[in-house]
Structure formats: C-alpha cells, structure tokens
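yo

u said u wanted the structure for the complex thing, so here. seqs first:
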Amino acid sequence: MSGALRYFTRSRHESGPARTQTPPRHHFVATPVLLGCLLVAGVLAAMLKLFVRGPVQMSDALAFGAVIVLGEALRITLPGGRDNAPLAATAGLGYALTTSIGGRPAMWGPVQVIVVVAVAAVIGSVPQAIAGRPAPIGYLVRRIGVTGIVAWLLRTVLAPEIATATRTELLLLLSAMAILALLMDPALAAVFATSSGYYATGSLLSHSEYGDSSVEHGRPAESAAAPRTSLRRLLDTWFEECVATARICPAVAALSVAVALAADPLGLWVLPIAAAPVLVMQRALRRYSAIRATYQQTIRALSRMTDLAGYTDPGHARRVCRLALAIGRDLDLTEPELLDLEYAALLHDIGQLSLADPLPGGATVLATPWVAAEVAARGAEVVRETGVLDRVARVLEAQPLSYRAQLAVSEAAVGEDEAIGDESERRAAAILRVANDFEDLRTAEPGPSAHVSALARIRRGIGDPYDPRAVESLTRLVSVE
Amino acid sequence: MPQRARYFFTAVIAAAAVAAACVLPGTDWANVPRAPFLVLLLLQVLLNLTIRLPDTQESPAGPAMVSVLLASIVLLPPGAAALTGAVSSSCMVLRRARPTRVGFACAVAFLAAAAAGEVYHAADGRTVLTGSDFPGALVPIGLAVLVLSVVPAAVIETFLVQVGRQTQRAALRDFTLRMVPRNIAYALVGLLTAVLWTVSYDALAAIVLLGPVIVTRWATVQYEEQRTAHDAIIRTLVQAVEIKDLYTRGHSERVARISEMIADELRLPPERVEVLRYAATLHDVGKLGVPTRLLRKTERLDDEEFEEIRLHPSRGVEVVRDIAFLDEAYSAILHHHERMDGLGYPSGLRGMRIPPFARIIAVADAFDSMTSTRSYRGARGSDEALNELRANMGTQFDPAIVDAIAAALSRAELAGRPWRGDGTACPGARGGQPELAELPPGAVVAQFDHDDPAYQLLAVDVEGAEKPQTDDYASGSEPPTDESAEREPAVDETSGGDNPVPDVSLPAATLPDAALPDAVLPDPVLPDAVLPDPKQPPAPRDELRLAPFRPELNLPTQTKREPKNDRAADRAADLATERGTDRDTPTNTGPETEGR
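structre next:
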C-alpha cells in the first residue's frame, strides 16, 4: 500500500469525535524524572563505594577526566536541538572500554568509570551553564548512564572473557560494546524526547510566547501535546534519533574503540592523538549547526516582510508557524517534515507581496479562492526561485487546495511511485491550511471567544476544505474548555 | 586555461616524473607489506571517488588524503607510499575530471608523498610505534606532516597566484591558518591508524580512519549547502521585494557586489566582507514599508511623505534584527542614508561617526542608482557616476571610500570585467528605458529613486530651506504609531550635542569632528542647489561641477597608513579592524538595535 493511500485511509477511519479521547499521560512524563533520580542515586552510591574502596590508577583517571571535561566544555548543539559532545563521548567510552594501558592492565572498575565520567561531565558543564546553556538533564543521564552500563557489562560481567581474549576477540568484544552504546544512547534520548530538542513534543505551546494566551490557557498543562504512550511511538522516536545521529555517533564509537585498543601500545599519548581529529570534526559540526541556525533565523526574520508591507497582521506568520508545528507534532510528523512545514508556514504569505493592494486583514481565508490560489502560486514561485526549497514550494502550492481535491490528487497518483514522496508535502499543506485559516479567522473577529468561534467555523469545514485529522488535532490543541 | 598555467602544469608533472624515476627503482618492492599497501591504496581510491572534486583551491592531497598518506608513509617505504597517492589520484579520471587536472593531481600527490616519506625515514622515523617511542616519535611525524602540507600547498598556491586568482598574502594566510592545523589533526588520525596497524588491528584501523573523515566531510558539505541556501533565500526574498518596482530590480544585489569590491579594496577581513555583503543585500528591505502611492507620485513629496521614506532604514533593521550573526549589519542598514555632513537620516550622524559599513553602502548605493536606468532618466556611465561621487565627496560620501570604489572599478576594468550597471547603460549613449511590457502585475514605476544623490540632495535642501536652524530630524521623524520612532528622543539625549542640523550654519571649526573641516561647508544649504524638478535629467549640476576640486579631500586615503595624522589613523583602524565607531558614539547602532 502506498504511503499516500495509507495516510488517507487511516485518516478516514480515525476521524470523528471519538478520536479526541487521549489517554492520560502523567506516568510518561514521570519516566525521565525517575531515570534522573535513579542516575543521581547511582552516581552517589558509586562515589561512596569508590571512596570506601579507593581509586586505582589515578593519573590515567585524571587524564581521561580532563579530556572529558574539555569535551563537555565544548559541547555543541546539533540541528534539531540535539546536544552532543563528541570529544567527551570518545574519551568517556574509551575510558570504559580500555582494558590495558601503556602495557599494564587497566584495573579500574565500573564504579570508578561512572564516578570519573559523572564528575568530569558535571565539571565540564559548568562553563556552558555559566554562558546560559545548562546541560539538559536528559543529556547527562544519557552520557553517564550509557557509559556506566557499558563499563559494568565489560568490567564485571565479561571480565573473565576479557582476561583470556585474543586480540581479535578483544576487538570484537569492544566493538560489540560500542555498538551497544550506539543503540542505547538514542533509546534513552527517545525517552527524554519530551524534555529536549527543538522539535520535541510539547516544547512549543507550553514554553513559547504564543502570542495569544487564549490557546495556552484554554487547556490543562499536562495534556500539552504530550506524546502518545505507546511502545510504537517510543520505537519511532528511537529510530528517528538513530537516523539523526547516524553520522556522528558511529564515528565516535569507532574512535573510542580505537582509543581503548591503542591505549595499550601508546599509553596516555592516545588521548591527544585521538582528540585532534575529533576536534576538527567538532569544528565542522559546529559550523554546520551555526549556519543552520542562521538560516532559520533569516527565514523567520524575512517572514516579517509581509507584516512590514502591511499585508498581514504583525506576527501572523510566526503564529501560524507555531500552530502548524504543534499540529504537525501532534500528528507525528517526522523531523524533516516538520522543518518543511515550519519554513512553509513562515513563508506562506510571501506571495501577497505581489498583490497590488493588501487583502483585508491579510486573511487569505476571507479572500476569494482565486486570489488565495494566486497568492499561493506566487509565493511558491518566489520560494522555488531560491533553488533550495523545492519541497517548501510544493507545500505552498498545495496549500490552497481543499482536502477533497488533495484526496483526489493522491488517489489519482496511487500506483505512481513518484507520488509517494509527495504525500508528506500534501499532509504539511493540509496542516498549514488549517493553521492559517484558524489564525485568520481568530484575528478577523477579535474577542475573548475568538478562538472558539474560529474553531467552530473550521470544524464545519471538516472533510471539504479541511483535513479531518488536522482539524481534530487543532481541536485537541485549542479547545478543552 | 592560460598559457602560463599550462606550462606550470607541465613543469609539475615533469618534476613528478623525475622524482618517480629516482624513488621508484630504489624501493625494495619485495619487502613492501602487501596488506597495508592494498588497504591504504583502496582507502585512497575510495576517498578520491567520493570527495567533491577539488576545485583548484583545494589541494588534491586534500585534508582527508593527508591522513591516509601519513599512514602510508609510516607503514610503507617512500616509493610505495607515493605510488598509492599517485595511483589513487588517477581514479579521478572515472569522475570525468579533465585529464590535465588528473595528471596534475597525480603529480602533486606523488611529489608530496615521496618527499614526506623520504623526510620521515631520513629523520629516523620507525615503522612500528609504541608508547615508549613518544614523544620522540613525534619529530619525524611532525616533519612528514609539514612536508605533506607544504608541497601541495606550495605548488597549488603558486599556480593560483600565477593565474591571478589569489594574492600571495591571502595564500600564505590560508596556508598557515587553515591548512596546517587541519592537516595536523588529520595526520593524527593517520598516526592512530598506523599504530593500530602495527598492533595488528587491520580492519579497525581502516574504520578509525574513515570515521572522522566521513563526518567532517558530511558536516562540511552540509555547511556549504546551508550556506548556499541561506544566500539564495536572502537574495530571492530581496528580489521579491524589488519585484514591485521595475527600476530597482537587481539593485540590492548590485549594491552588494559593489560593496564587496570596495571592501576588498579596503582589505577588510573576509568575515567582515561577508557581513557587509549581507548588509548591502538587505539594506533596502525596509522600503517595503513605503506605501506604493509614494513611489508613484510625480509631484514633490511633502514632509510627511518624506518621513515615510526616511523611516525605511529603521524598518529594515526591524526585519533583520533577529538574525544574530548580522550584528554589525544592523548599524549599516540603519545608517546607510547618513551623510558625511550630518544632513542624512535617520540620526544625522556626521563624518566618522557613521558606521564604516554604512559609509560603504551609501557610496555603493548611490553609484548603482546613478548607473541604472530610472523612470525619469537614463543610466549614466560609471565614469560620469564616479565624477558625481567625487563632487559630493566630503559632503555626502566618505572620500576614502569614493577613492576605493574608483580604484576597485579601474581594477575590475583592467581584469576585463568592467562595471556594467544594470546593463542598460552603454558607453557614450544615455541608456534607454526598460521595456514597460516587462512589468509584472502590480508593479510600480517609481517616479523617483531615494538613492539617487540628486534626489537626496533635493530632500535635504527642502528641509534646509523650509526649516532653517531649528529643523530637528529626530523629532520630525516621529510618526505617532511607530514604536521604534517613539524611542528616538532618547537617542537624541545619548547623542548629546551631536544633533547635526543646528550646526550646519555654524563655522566648520566649531564642529566636533575636525576630520573634514572643508567638507562640512554648508554647500547643500545654498538655495540654488535645489533641483527644480526631479524629472529633469539630473545631469551635471553646475554648482557642484564648478566647485573647486580640493585635493586635500584625498588626504584621509593618502595618509591612511601614516600614524602622524591621528584622525586618519583612527579612520584606518575604523575601517580595517573592529567596529571602531562604537567607541566614538553610542548612537551609531541606533535606537532599533538597542533593545536587542
């Protein structure tokens, strides 16, 4: 079954008021807190144990700890709001995996690994915290937890095997450990996806300055677009995290295995030798995420051009963007889809610049369909001219089409392979349409219950101009009085 | 490809052939370890097949290759290492690179690897590394890395300098600041590989080598894509703004290009040039807020309508103020209509208090306006426009920057890329009107251009004539609804006695800024400087033409690097180093950026 068909059939089955019932979400929010507490308790216990037993090979511990501190101090935030510290991860995992260093066996146990990594991570986070970017708790839990589990497995459970392993076996064992870490890290990240990341669920409506408090206050806080409590959702997020980190984390894992193995002949010299390429890698990553952030800022800033020219209400594009993103998250759009949706929402009124006179109130919903289509087509033309936002241009183009028309388009396209890729664009267009029209209607008739009447009007259009799923999501987000 | 480059290519390839003839027979091929040779060769082939084909800027033995080559140098005899480099470089043929390029790349890779290998072994480098060898083992490795960086860099930079695509200074800076640190880091990956190899973890060694290389390359490619996208979106959206007015199409982009040329002439560092380019591209974004009826109007505008136009810099800043990296660009956008004599808007800054970028954009802006066709006149040639700029030097434009644009234009002409304006100006003729059939729906034919120096002077003169002495731009530019303008009076307080207009009629000596004593003579206040009608061809205005050309106005540029002239040195620092204007005055970032 093609993606398009699946999407639309599912939406048909699931539409209707029964869908608004959402399961309680309290315990899911509690999971990260629970994990955090567990970690703190574990670290404290480990410190106590280490204090009683006494640390071994202090100079090695200090050297690795110093590199971890440095790496944490250079922590970067990758696109998508993911925190990452490749250098700290390499050194930490390397410390956990090292079985002999400079020709001597590495005697430290998992307890010491946990303490070194935890202390160094906390110390390294201080400069960033001072600069106003405190390390998210989820990030620390991931870093310390994963390293701790790997260290425990290798240094306690597998200790007898390590002692007798040949070189090849050792390589395989360490690689297996690194791969385990590679899979565990995104899993923990998926659990914490509620509390970190730009596109993480719930970060929008609950934290943002959504201009009009009517939406925010209208609903109980804990239902703020929290994730569905299904295992499937968790698996999806896990997979998404794996894909998003598919470039960086394998390199880090391979390097940490290399550190562990090369520590035997090289001793502590392995640290500077391995750190240099990681730093170069990190620099390239930092540059990338910086330009990416700038790019988003630019689009956000330029979305204000229509306000400036008097075509739209001040802040209209941003409000539509926030609402569209909230709906998109509620409907489980993937991260690239959300990015397209964001850009499309920000730029959706650019086409109005070509109108001789502003539409009344800038509201395309009140304009004749012909004008709305013209605005959309012009906007798509402008966006397409950039040569880099083709998908966004197609979303803009599809936006004025009614849901029914889109359905027809997608059904006609079933069977053609190239149409499958367009499904997400049509979905984004449907969401954008609902968000934009809701915003337009809400601002067109200001008043305390503006959003209620706007919602009522939108709901009347379920199925014909509007996508039922998007409207249901909007209802969930907005109503609940 | 120029003839010289061809000769150079041939020479390099010949040198490599000679080196091969010396090195290859001397290698003991029977004792070359097979596994490292094959795996490293394979890795290099892989890299060569996957990298972006290096433009000539990039060394063929680019950063990623350095790591593999270093591993080869440690593990293999020099001849074998060099052979892996040369053979793998020849794989570029599969990617349809030009044969000369491939030959050149092979030659450079061979020369670099052979030289580095010889140096490594001459410096008593070992093929088996253990911890006890350190840090002594770092010496031959360091030497090998140095040679491995220097040889390709020298060859390629020489080529680039010869072709004229890069100056020697830039080449040297590029080499020391960018290539060497990067090469050292990559070489360390190669070192790690070599070490792992010697303790017989062959497979892992290859993975270790590839990991950071792949990630870095991926991030770099992403970075470049995003950068291109960023440029493209700014350009396109600015074009979307210009679509309404046929005559200003491409204006922003041309201003950006001229500003860049000026900045290159002033030798600004590349990062600042980039910010300047963005500032120049976005300088007129605020014009979007000017009602189209004003653009259409053929009669003289009244005060309120002037205010609308005067507001466009502030509005532009409002659009871009959330773009964090543009920092220095805000003040440039805000003040690009300031004049050296303090009669500009929005703040009436004078002389060196105008941010340097704003001064550059002002000149570029006026120059492009004059060399483009407008509804009320044809385009002028660049010489004529330059003369006009010179005539307004000191009053409206910074002489140093006018000189820079003149130098940049003549340099461009020498290089065979003369400035063509918007393409309508032809030398000798007056240029033609663009075809009105091209007008898009909803387009406006502006009846004036606020960037045109003639028009600007007109605006200033009207003000000067109607409200002598007491005119106050800041309070006058206060529309009741605009929140940015509501903060204007505060600016007046911070700027203290800098409120320019009352000063205009005072003797120049009393002006706080003594940099341009001659420049601030109240030339524009002369009533006959008013143009009777903007629709008239604004060609040679006699007062300005006949005004004695004062060579001393050139002083700041000529003495720019002489420390004895404090003020001139100040200005040089102003332009070339940091945002010197900040320490001069708190106002030059403007009211709109204060709240950031």
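Chain A touches chain B through 64 residues (CB under 8 Å). Confidence is low (pLDDT under 50) at residues 1-28, 194-228, 417-421 of chain A.
cya
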